[in-house]
């Protein structure tokens, strides 16, 4: 088609230029593009590139489309860093959250890491779907060894279908006189102790710790990248764990160290029962019961293996949270101002801005 067009067009072009003037490559290219790829179409492709996001595409499909359309908007990505930034902004949110803490400046490396994150997410989806199918096949089965955390609300809930009125004093929903700010027990109304320590039991309810399973307590201050960005008390990064790059949250406000359900499933260890089980306070105010732990997980830093006992925890924003138990054991001092770990004697020393396998 193009050859036929050129045969019919060449004579006209030569006539315009004159017989003595040769048709240069630049002249031919301009004529060719004007005919087969006009300026309006080029501008349309540039707009498509500006609006491009991953959407329902895989990372590989997104990268291919990105490269094809980028030719028409080179001015938007003048260097490798801008190219990587544009690609990262268009990634699926779940994948973007996993790679953004890596601070990757190479487009090729970013595509590779995003592909790995995509595979991990797909494994997580398949694992959860498998568990749902197993639960549906045994709807009546109740196992006391179920390792999934159970979430307990901070306040007792009203009977199904009913809603308590909102209190004008404390802003919460409850019945009766508000005890907020009166230094009295919310359960019995007497002073000098809290409801959780109340010695008075309700009808049909055993006394404190009487016949009830007790839990150790713990807390975390951040569970997602959004929580981490909003806090000046944490540092995020990436370390090697079980021969994989794990997204890590260093949180000196967390009393213990944790590993996500998904990453624990990929681990080379079998979880052990946590006795007693642990009630973990989250940033939202909920309490999550955890009852299993991975002992001696090999956290690798600068060629050193620093074991961590990681409690299996229901979270998705990070693979691992390293809390005060691990930080104090390894004499690590988190420099939250500069977002790096500072030296202290023979303490752990590494920076979030060095190359892998260190934090980046």
TrEMBL record:
Gene3D superfamilies: Acid Proteases (2.40.70.10), Zinc finger, CCHC-type (4.10.60.10). The keyword Zinc applies. The keyword Zinc applies. Pfam families: Retrotrans_gag, RVP_2, zf-CCHC. InterPro entries: Peptidase_aspartic_dom_sf, Retrotrans_gag_dom, RTL1-rel, Znf_CCHC, Znf_CCHC_sf. Residues 129-163 are annotated as: Disordered. GO terms for molecular function: nucleic acid binding; zinc ion binding. It comes from the Eukaryota. Transmembrane segments: none annotated. Residues 185-199 form the CCHC-type domain. Keywords: Metal-binding, Zinc, Zinc-finger. This is Uncharacterized protein LOC118344724. It comes from Juglans regia. The lineage of its organism: Eukaryota, Viridiplantae, Streptophyta, Embryophyta, Tracheophyta.
């Amino acid at each position: 088609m193009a050859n036929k067009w050129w045969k019919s067009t060449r004579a006209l072009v030569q006539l315009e230029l004159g017989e003595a003037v040769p048709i240069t490559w630049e002249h031919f290219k301009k004529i060719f593009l004007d005919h087969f790829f006009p300026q309006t179409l080029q501008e349309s492709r540039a707009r498509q590139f500006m609006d491009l996001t991953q959407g329902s595409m895989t990372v590989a499909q997104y990268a291919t489309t990105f490269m094809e359309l980028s030719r028409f908007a080179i001015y938007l990505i003048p260097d490798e860093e801008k190219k990587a930034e544009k690609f990262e902004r268009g990634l699926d949110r779940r994948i973007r959250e996993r790679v953004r803490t890596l601070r990757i400046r190479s487009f090729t490396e970013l595509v590779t890491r995003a592909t790995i994150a995509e595979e991990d997410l797909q494994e997580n989806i398949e694992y959860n779907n498998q568990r749902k199918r197993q639960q549906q096949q045994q709807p009546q089965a109740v196992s006391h060894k179920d390792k999934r955390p159970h979430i307990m609300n901070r306040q007792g809930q009203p009977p199904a279908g009913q809603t308590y009125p909102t209190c004008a004093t404390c802003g919460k929903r409850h019945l009766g006189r508000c005890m907020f700010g009166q230094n009295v027990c919310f359960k019995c109304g007497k002073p000098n102790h809290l409801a959780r320590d109340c010695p008075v039991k309700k009808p049909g309810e055993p006394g404190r710790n009487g016949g009830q399973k007790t839990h150790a307590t713990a807390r975390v201050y951040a569970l997602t990248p959004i929580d981490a960005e909003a806090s000046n008390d944490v540092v995020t990064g990436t370390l090697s764990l079980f021969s994989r790059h794990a997204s890590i949250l260093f949180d000196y406000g967390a009393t213990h160290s944790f590993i996500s359900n998904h990453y624990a499933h990929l681990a080379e260890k079998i979880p052990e029962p946590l006795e007693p089980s642990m009630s973990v306070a989250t940033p939202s105010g909920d309490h999550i019961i955890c009852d299993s732990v991975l002992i001696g997980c090999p956290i690798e830093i600068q060629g050193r293996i620093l074991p961590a006992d990681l409690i299996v925890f229901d979270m998705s924003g990070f693979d691992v949270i390293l809390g005060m138990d691990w930080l104090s054991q390894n004499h690590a001092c988190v420099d939250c101002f500069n977002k790096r770990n500072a030296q202290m004697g023979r303490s752990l020393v590494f920076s979030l801005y060095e190359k892998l396998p260190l934090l980046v």
